[in-house]
Amino acid sequence: MTPFLLVSRSAEYESRLRSLLGARLDVVTGEFLTFGASSVVDRVDGTPRIALLGPVLNYEETHGLAEELTSRHPDVGLIVVREQRSDLEDWVDELALHAVLSPDASDETTLELIERLSAWLVQHGKASSRDFEPPAAVAAHLADPVRQAVETPFDALTGGDVVAYDELTQAPPVPTWDFPPLEAGTRTEAIAVVAPKGGQGKTTLSINLATGLAEIAPNSVVLVDADLQFGDIATALSLEPDRTIVDAVADAAADEIVLKTSLTHHDAGFFVVAGAPSPELGDAISTAALGLLIERLRTSFRYVVVDTTPGLGEHTLATLEHVTDAVFVTNMSVPSLRAMRTEFELLTTVGLMPSNRHVVLNQSERGSGLTVRDAERILGAPVDVEVPRSSAVLLASNRGIPLIHDDARDPAAKAIRSVVKRIAPEASPKRRKIQRRRTDESQ
Ligand SMILES: Nc1ncnc2c1ncn2[C@@H]1O[C@H](COP(=O)(O)OP(=O)(O)OP(=O)(O)O)[C@@H](O)[C@H]1O
Ligand SMILES: [Mg+2]
């Protein structure tokens, strides 16, 4: 079985990938593209599970291949092998890609990405774990320790990597989550994520905060979509909730057990109060009901993270009355920075500035004409965390996976982790099993 396909015009990359994936890789050289994408796909053996397109393919060629492959093999995972460039987001949007890989990425990063996409395809029912097993000849070879010792043609697949594949491609475990009881006296925290204008990154921050906090308090984190008109957390997390915040506010007025039935569980170990099904239903929620919901959730969960509507409308003010922390998100544009300064002044005047304030400068980039110092001068406050603009944010959200799990090494993911640490200093990146195993074996 050859689960992996490479279409590229680089002989050097081809031989590198062959040494990493051995007999599980099928290669069709990009020269066949002269006769069209279908002539390339005609040459593919069996059903490819993951296709790597590039390097040295242009946009039209990649587009044609992606279309042809997905029409004949709808479940195929697509990775474009290409440098990060400014037009990358267009590629990702238009080609429905699963991932982008730099041709200069290390062998470890390359294998890790392929492993993660394989696991994702299995978890989403698009492939079976058996599809990624080495062919019989390779398996026999690996089972024979004497041959392994004298010949090493499948170098990169031996030892840890094969075990890692097995681990990653196992059927997903049956959910065993429950609501862990809060020990008496546990201090609970509620964190509002706010911004004076739309599109600054509140939802991105909220989702990743909940994900990071769930690592230290599994199943004791709840993420509330209180962007009452246009909440989109369920979509961003690929969840299909049966019940929403409209049910949750009604249940909060009843009792705690009933309230828990209006939550949707996410595999990362947190619960979601999904956004209202329509703007009218969201608007009908009273500020008092929203406040009561947050208070009720704080009696059962260690952390309550609340995503809000842009600006300082009555619902956001009501939220701020019931939280311990606020994460203020702005980008580097002068109007947003000025609006946030006004927001700080207003909240201080009305006495609603939460005791813990975290200022996040999101989507920062060089060449914006402003430095962080300039931004701080306009804000009249220090910036606590700077999160760079990164195409990985869009990729993660298109895949419906929290960024800090989707691409832990991305600079934006690392910066968001430092926001998590500000709220829960004990939080530190969870090491993945595969990395632990490799380290153990190398000792
Ligand atoms: N650091 C970043 N780098 C690149 N893109 C980002 C970054 N942060 C957010 N984005 C993108 O910006 C867009 C807006 O982000 P997000 O939805 O999180 O903002 P929001 O404040 O919740 O918006 P809204 O006000 O519409 O609810 C999304 O497409 C998201 O992928
Ligand atoms: Mg949002």
How are the SSEs placed, and which strands pair?
Blueprint (H helix, E strand, L loop, with lengths): L3 E5 L2 H11 L3 E5 L7 H6 L7 E4 L5 H14 L4 E5 L6 H8 L3 E3 L5 H17 L12 H8 L1 H6 L9 H10 L19 E6 L7 H15 L4 E6 L6 H4 L8 H10 L1 H5 L3 E3 L3 E4 L5 H5 L3 H12 L4 E6 L5 H8 L3 E6 L3 H17 L5 E9 L7 H8 L5 E4 L2 H9 L3 H4 L4 H13 L9 H10 L1
Parallel strand pairs: 1-2, 1-3, 3-4, 4-5, 6-10, 6-11, 7-9, 7-10, 11-12, 12-13
Antiparallel strand pairs: 8-9
The structure holds adenosine-5'-triphosphate and magnesium ion.
Provide the residue-averaged pLDDT. 84
Q: How many structural domains are formed by the residues?
A: 2
CATH level-four homologous superfamily name of the largest domain: P-loop containing nucleotide triphosphate hydrolases
**What's the total count of β strands?**
13
Q: Given this structure, which CATH class of the largest domain is correct?
A: Alpha Beta
Q: How many separate helices? A: 21
Explained architecture:
The protein has two domains: 4-169, Rossmann fold, CATH 3.40.50.2300; 189-433, Rossmann fold, CATH 3.40.50. α3 links the parallel β3 (50-53) and β4. The protein is of the alpha/beta class and 443 residues long. The protein has helices spanning 11-21, 37-42, 59-72, 88-95, 107-123, 136-143, 145-150, 160-169, 202-216, 233-236, 245-254, 256-260, 279-283, 287-298, 314-321, 334-350, 372-379, 391-399, 403-406, 411-423, 433-442; strands spanning 4-8, 25-29, 50-53, 77-81, 99-101, 189-194, 221-226, 264-266, 270-273, 303-308, 325-330, 356-364, 385-388. α4 (88-95) runs parallel beside α18 (391-399) and α5 (107-123) packs parallel to α8. The strands form two sheets. It has an eight-stranded mixed β-sheet, with helices on both faces. The protein has a five-stranded parallel β-sheet with strand order 2-1-3-4-5, sandwiched between helices. The longest helix is centred in the N-terminal third of the chain and has 17 residues, at 107-123. The model is unreliable at 141-176 and 430-443 (pLDDT under 50). Bound molecules: adenosine-5'-triphosphate and magnesium ion (MG). Residues 195, 198-204, 227, 310, 362-363, 387, 389-390, 393-394, 397, 412 line the site of adenosine-5'-triphosphate.
